[in-house]
Every structure is written in structure tokens, then in C-alpha cells.
Amino acid sequence: xxxxxxxxxxxxxxxxxxxxxxxxxxxxxxxxxxxxxxxxxxxxxxx
Length: 47
Fold this sequence. Notes:
Order of helices and strands: H
Helix content: over 70%
Shape: rod-shaped
Mean pLDDT: 92
Number of strands: 0
Strand content: under 5%
Largest sheet: none
Structural class: mainly alpha
Distance between the termini: 69 Å
Low-confidence stretches: none
């Protein structure tokens, strides 16, 4: 009985974790891109 509960918990938790991980990764990537763009524009502006 206990293993069944654990399995159902995993079945519920895993997709949620996968979705949050995906969105978090996209957010981090866009933040990194913004930072790189900002740095480049600052370097251009200083010249």
C-alpha cells in the first residue's frame, strides 16, 4: 500500500518538477542574455 502512495506521489511530482525546471531554465537563459546585452552596450557606450 505504501509503495502505491509513493508511486502516485512521484507520478504527480515529476511532471511538476519538469515544468518548473523548464521554465526556470528559460528564465535563467533570458536573464543571462539580458546581462550579456547590457554588458556589451555598456562597453560600447564607454568607448
